[in-house]
Amino acid sequence: MNRRKLMASLAVIPAIGLATPVFAQEEPLKVGFIYVGPVGDGGWTYQHDLGRQAIEEEFGDRVETTFIESVPEGADAERALSQLALAGNELIFATSFGFMDPVINVAAKFPDVKFEHATGYKRAENVATYDARFYEGRAVMGTIAGRMTESNKIGYIGSFPIPEVIQGINSSFIHARKVNPDVEMKVVWAYSWFDPAKEADAASALIAEGVDVILQHTDSTAPLAKAQEAGAIGFGQASDMSNFAPSPRVSSIIDNWAPYYIERVGQVLDGTWESKGTWAGIAGGEVEIGEITEAVPAEVKEEALALKDSIASGEYHPFTGPLNRQDGSEWLAEGQVATDEELSGMNFFVEGITAKIPE
Amino acid sequence: MIDPLSVFLLLLSASTPIVFAALGELVTERAGVLNLGVEGMMIVGALAGFAAAHATGSPFIGFVVAALAGAAVSMTFAMLTQFLLANQVASGLALTLFGLGLAALFGKPLEGIKAPAMVPGPLRINWIVWLGIAMVPLIWWFLNRSRAGLILRGVGENHDAAHALGYPVRIVRITAIGFGGAMAGVGGAFLSIAIVLQWTEGMTAGAGWIALAIVVFSNWTALGVLAGAWLFGGVTVLQLRLQAAGVAVPVQFLSMAPYLATIIVLVLISAQQKYSRRSGRAAPGSLGQNFYALR
Amino acid sequence: MWIFPAMVLAGALGGWAWGMIPAMLRNWFGASEILVSLMLVYVAQKVAAWMAFGPMKNPEGFGFPGSRNLQQYPAASNPELIAGTGAHWGVVAAALAVLATWFLISRHIRGFHIRAAGLAPRAARFAGVRPETLVAFCLGLSGACAGMAGLFEVSGPAGQITDSFGSGYGFTAIIVAFLGRLHPVGILLAGLLLALTYIGGELAQLTLQLPAATVQVFQGMLLFFLLGFDLLTRFRLQRRITA
Question: Which residues of C touch A163 (CB under 8 A)?
Fold first, then answer.
């Protein structure tokens, strides 16, 4: 650590206990982050931290970023958020769903501090929310999966039965079916975002069921390692996982928070920030498709990229009718597109998936 | 339908980290020491093993280094409990905290690197899996048929008596703690080198705690550890297999079941010992108690 | 008005009942209370997870796991008593618990029995102390305390039951008890010390940009030293004179 930083850190200490930041004009904008995992998790938190680094790179001396990592959801989160606010951060990013209520509570106590909460649905005057349309990426994965499977069985390792994951399962299934009407989808729930041993077991269970393409919604590389052993293929999740390329990792779905973070910090700097809910996808650069490797035939790659482009241009929505619910009742009529409200509360599988969502 | 053999083969490899860690803890506990730091030793082993395997390109050297690292970090616990007479439960918890932090700190440069490939052994199953299974009869033999094992059990049952008979209680216990650390280290390294093929912070994700439960379930026998590891691992593997086959399963209840089974086993064995005064063993007599020679 | 006190009572009762499981298994069958309660930790976690995904799931929560947030129901919440301090009713209750435990252990005959049974079980038995009663009393009481601690968290800072509720506070409490040398006031101080390392750890991340792992290592080492040097307070070092 250099001397300037040390001085800066000493300067913070007297500021603790004051609710409002002092000298906001002269000083660089302080941006705080609270992470649910360690920055070294190679997945969710790692990607958010890349976003933080992108802010520093973009704005240089005009911003100063700090983070607190591995904060458990629940009681500890509120304390950590208060500390970030007390330390003079004017913009705070809370990057896990479980931080939702703590953010709302702390935001009420610090009306001058702006909060950004990832993946939640509660907003306030000074609390904005943001999320990424991961299902758009899943549509591309589903297309590749449907084309690549030889056993016509694809597997999905779910973390928790929440709307984001259910969207992902539906989206990948719909698009796999579109290119391969015989495809079947097997779903297992790991009940964890990160548990390598269990994820490996989940992948093995799918492989033993005859699955040869695995989509994962959990963050470790264990399913890819299992896929490699069994000669199956899979996709990187959250981060690129490119060290498993070209096979078993044939592509990946990457969370890229940098564009959003840079945009929002810029808005705070020029005074145009306001609370809103942002749900961007491939078009906004939030959801990236990692390089499709040579293990995928060229025409499949082309088809996948074409789908990606049509989603990016807004020409195509992955949830476009006709689509029925699992029980056969009609959900979307021909040409009808799912609304964001429907998607953000999604709690059913589409027709054709045989697995049940656990109650 | 679900083919039992495939479930079993899956189970063999899935339960290996826990088999190692639990066998190590078994020996430690039979010497009368309750080390709750298994999770911490496992993750240190996972990191050290991965680092060594990556640096040398040899998974085998990785496992050796993991064993050494696990044993080394367990010596802090040995120091505290055997020389400084600190409480074993608290020291073990501190060891877990320390190990998790230490591994995370030193693991930073290794993030995102892939482990070197391993040559599979018989039945396309990793050699380490077979080694874990081979350790079961070896440890059984050591505990029940060898003189050294007899002394170790004596120390664990009644350290005052063992001391009076002239056995070096402290040395026996330190050795047992070190062995437990080495085994936990290998178990952790199996996760990073053979299952995930990558180092990630916090990758043991509670495996050490399961190993502790299995030792209780095993009624402190080597064969029981294997049965316990297969039961605990089996429940997970089976519920995932059922899910994959499209059967709805009550996951929370299923994953609770092995722990309830452990309590029932513990109660049955204790009751047998209490009321019949014959056979049946429960926890080693001096488990968790510190020893100091009065003279 | 009465809802929150009733919740505290129910929390204590729940903790007491959970604590009585190892106590009774110990008394009836001689099963080790350490091991039984260790196993019960996992069972309790699964029960909480089941509740968060099942019966207690917030119907307005868009399918996310977790109960309704109690902070939005003033009658059932445990708010900050003094704004900005984070102090809630749990702080008051903890202070009272320290006093009550001190009185129990140092001034009450039952506390004397507990200490006697801890130091010399056989002697205590001869003096007419029934170990079964003590086991049930102590485990039940500590269960009730732990239950209240959980309730104050769930109704206060955490606000809701989630699948990850708990995050290791119970194990930290064991460390605190030993650091406090099993004395109520010592435990209060040890609790404050550990809390300081948590908060200080976050501050260190913020101001010095240390990774969380450094803080964890520091905590581990702090505990090692404190536990290790406890020896010097309990034993006197003596130079052995060899003739």
Answer: 62-64
Map out the domains of chain B as residue ranges.
4-276
Contacts of C194 in chain B (CB under 8 A): none
* Residue C177: pLDDT over 80: yes
Spatial CB neighbours of A114, under 8 Å, sequence gap ≥ 6? A90, A91, A92, A126, A127, A128, A268, A273, A275
CA B207, B212, B214, B217 dihedral sign is: negative
The sign one gets for the Cα dihedral C233, C235, C238, C240 is negative
Which tens digit of pLDDT belongs to each residue from A63-119? 999 999 888 887 788 888 988 998 899 999 999 888 988 898 889 889 999 999 998
Instruction: Pinpoint the alpha helices (H) of A237-289.
Output: 258-269
Same domain, A146 and A122: no
Q: Are B49 and B193 in contact (CB under 8 A)?
A: yes
Least confident of A246-260, C8-22, C66-80: C66-80
Q: Cβ(A68)–Cβ(A95) under 8 Å?
A: no
Question: Beta-carbon neighbour count of residue B164 at 10 Å?
Answer: 10
**How are strands ordered across the β-sheet holding A184-189?**
A184-189, A153-158, A213-216, A233-238, A249-255, A287-290
Of B97, B212, B259, the CB nearest to C216: B97
Same domain, yes or no: A93 and A203: no
pLDDT above 90 for B195: no
Q: How confident is the model at residue C243 (pLDDT cuts 50, 70, 90)?
A: low
**Higher per-residue confidence, B177 vs A241:** B177
Q: Most A CBs within 10 Å: which of C57, C62, C154, as the mutation test of the A interface?
A: C62
Q: What is the mean pLDDT of residues B213-221?
A: 88
% of chain A at pLDDT higher than 90: 57
Among candidates B80, B103, B283 on the partner chain, residue whose Cβ is nearest the Cβ of C227:
B80
DSSP letters spanning C92-142: HHHHHHHHHHHHHHHHSHHHHHHHHHHH-HHHHHHTT--HHHHHHHHHHHH
B95/C40 Cβ within 8 A: no
Among the candidates C106, C137, C167, a domain finishes at C167
CATH placement of domain B4-276:
1.10.3470
Residue B190: DSSP 8-state: I
Q: Do the chains contact at C205 and A19, CB–CB below 8 Å?
A: no
Give the pLDDT confidence of C138-165 residue by residue, as tens digits: 999 999 999 999 898 888 877 788 777 6
Task: Find the mean pLDDT for residues C193-203.
Answer: 85
* Residue B175 structure tokens: 């050795």
Q: Is the pLDDT of residue B295 over 60?
A: no
Residue with tokens 């591994």: B103
pLDDT in tens, A261-277: 999 999 999 999 999 99
Q: How far does the CA of residue C151 sit from the closest CA of chain B (Å)?
A: 22
- Interface check for A111 against chain C (CB to CB < 8 A): the answer is no
CATH number for the domain that contains residue A335: 3.40.50.2300
Main-chain dihedrals φ then ψ at residue A277, nearest 5 degrees:
-105, 125
Same domain, A213 and A110: no
Instruction: Count chain A–chain C contacts defined by CB atoms under 8 A.
Output: 99
Which residue type is seen at A287? V
B contacts of A228 (beta carbons < 8 Å): 197
The mean per-residue pLDDT over the stretch C222-237 comes to: 79
Q: Is the pLDDT of residue A133 over 90?
A: yes
Domain residue limits at A49: 13-132
Which of C167, C198, C229 finishes a domain? C167
**What's the complex ipTM?**
0.81
User: Can you tell me the distance from the alpha carbon of C97 to that of C99, in angstroms, rounded to the nearest whole number?
Assistant: 5
B265–chain C nearest CA distance, Å: 10
Which residues have C-beta within 8 Å of that of residue B240, sequence separation ≥ 6? A188, A190, A198, A201, A202, A204, A205
